[in-house]
Amino acid sequence: MDAGTRIEGALEAAVARTVADNGPPLLSAAIRHAVFPGGARVRPRLTLAVAQACGGDDPVLADAAAGAVEMLHCASLVHDDLPCFDDADTRRGRPSVHAVYGAPLALLAGDALIVMAFEALARGAAASPQRLIKLLSTVTRGVGAPFGIVAGQAWESEPNPPPEQYRCAKTGALFVAATMAGALASGGDPTPWRALGQRLGEAYQVADDLLDAVSSAEECDKPVGRDAALGRPNTIAELGIPGAVRRLESLIADAMNSIPPCPGEEELRELVHTQALRLAPKRLVRSAA
User: Of 167, 172, 270, 281, which has the maximum CB count within 10 A?
Assistant: First the structure.
């Protein structure tokens, strides 16, 4: 199966476990709304690509890790859209979860997705239980405090948050978890893959800052202008648009150059290049070498 099919299968299996005859049907519907249809699934694709580069000897665990990373990403989007944060009524070109089901169910759906992610990891490690502890430690660091997504969201509530720490937590941490989890799922050394996650995570944050500043809601499939309206730290305020574009192009090149020698190296470089450029305003960004 190709990566897209594997990812969707892992997510469908996890979401299906939330449906029960005597369970709350609106919660199940809100969870499904949060996960399907998805975006580009960049983070889980990275997880599977790194897992394959490290030997790919346990595809069940690799699929579970990829699905877990994407569920955590979806949970972060649901919470990010809530009225207490971005108050965004659209996501991926359609109404956000809280716009359809209300804030209480959206909050619970995000919570459920976090739990589902770790359940998926536990289920997937049946054949390689010795890999589970390091996987759990790596993934939790990417989503919790003081360095993960939770910390990134919390920095938005602090006065004058440090831009670098904010970006690393808000976006970079889950990319690092995605690449390192791919290595761990195949019994590989995760350390050489940290830099790829760091560079690509920062590139995605810079691209998102550019989109928020210069694009339309129709182009982005979500509200724009939120950074300026909410006074958030962002690359545009620091560097201006030309400086942010240069920074993005530099990060994409650094990300590709950070890939260690491995089977399928050229295919992985192409995946990184294509996905890194996908979100950036096409009229501003040149193709990085």
Answer: 172
